[in-house]
Amino acid sequence: MKTSCLRFITILCIGAGFLVISPKSFGQLRVDTTSRHKVITPPASKVAGTGTSDSLAAGPANEDSLANALKPHPFQPNPKKAGLYSAIVPGLGQFYNRQYWKIPIVYVGLATVGYFFVTDLKKYQSYRLAYIGRINNPYPTDPYVKTYPPPGGTEQLNQLQNDYNKYLDLSVMFGVIGYAMQVIDAVTGAHLKNFDISRDISMKVKPVVVPCGVGLGLVFNYK
User: Fold this and answer.
1) Domain ranges of the chain
2) Average pLDDT of the chain?
3) pLDDT at position 12 over 50
């Protein structure tokens, strides 16, 4: 019973830590655009494919288009590729998303599940062989003769093999869940890689003037 609780708590802590830390890498803090800055127009000789300097100084439209052209585009991963990579090799989708700090968490979780699986398998096989060897054998020679002496010890070995058989099923279940979680995380991380969490996304309550009087209005700012 203690082994089962320890196994459950260990895997639960790893999964909880992964879920708590993971959302921090979903959003990307972009440059604050709430404060207005003057766009500096470079000389025409430094801009490829442009004409004279008079055409660049035409107005704000040219300045905005030039600023957008010179602005570096952030890396945007493909969610389908990220999910496929993680399905083939655990952690490869996180590597593709450039979320390198998640890779150790993925392998620590899988290694923990693998450790419990191997340990439970060895215990199950050992107790099963000892139980089978005691059936219709008045003089058993298994290593559990002193710990679980017959005849009552035989039933205890049977119970132990059944318990570790359940632990094996739990280990496989946790392994499948952990494997699926890292695939889902890769897809979600790719979707939210450039999610804007800057101050540009805001909601304000302020008074507004309408033809019939004065009231309160909600202002959503999406820039």
Assistant:
1) 2-32+54-221
2) 74
3) yes
